[in-house]
């Protein structure tokens, strides 16, 4: 068993909830095979339950699909349709950890990602940012985690051939979570 104090210095066991004003979930996907399109989800809820050991800890998150924002309103509307996220039918994307472990300097968070009603195993590679007390006396912890998924594994299959060859979108999507949590008292 890996003691929390040994791998996440200053992190106190307890329930930690997301600070949405200081957190962001973003994604990027290859576009026209020459660049990437990026976006974010603006409504995210997450809770981390920190145990005495890494193995006794867990994370759960829910993302509101309709909150997708790529900075282009027509594209965002298209992403909400059945071509992509089917937000009316599947209003949330969820993540539930199934295990947390240490591999070298990385904290790996194994879990189940559910998107469009499809649940697949994913592993987030995490980097702990640290713990501090803010100006209001609240204990905060921060970190970043990333993973890559194949969007077609989740039924996000829309694509279009381009005249020069290839397709409009790549299948690999990088998801990045930059999160800040507040210890609940």
Walkthrough of the structure:
It is a single chain. The chain has a single domain (4-183), classed as Lipocalin, CATH 2.40.128.110. Helix content is 6%, strand content 55%. The chain has helices at residues 4-7, 73-80; strands at 14-18, 24-31, 35-41, 44-50, 58-64, 68-69, 92-103, 106-115, 118-133, 139-150, 169-183. Strand 2 and strand 3 (35-41) form a beta hairpin. The longest helix is centred in the middle third of the chain and has 8 residues, at 73-80.
Question: Low-confidence segments, ≥5 residues, pLDDT <50?
Answer: none
Shape verdict: elongated
Instruction: State the distance separating the first and last CA atoms.
Output: 26 Å
**CATH homologous superfamily grouping:** Lipid/polyisoprenoid-binding, YceI-like
Biggest sheet architecture: 8 strands, antiparallel, barrel
Order of H and E elements: HEEEEEEHEEEEE
The total count of strands amounts to 11
Strand order of the largest sheet: 1-4-5-7-8-9-10-11
Given the structure, what is the number of helices? 2
Helix content: under 10%
- CATH topology name: Lipocalin
What's the CATH architecture name? Beta Barrel
CATH C-level class is Mainly Beta
Strand percentage lies at over 45%
The computed structural class is mainly beta
The protein's oligomeric status is single chain
- Please indicate the count of domains: 1
Question: In summary, what is this structure?
Answer:
The chain is mainly β and 185 residues long. It has helices at 4-7, 73-80; strands at residues 14-18, 24-31, 35-41, 44-50, 58-64, 68-69, 92-103, 106-115, 118-133, 139-150, 169-183.
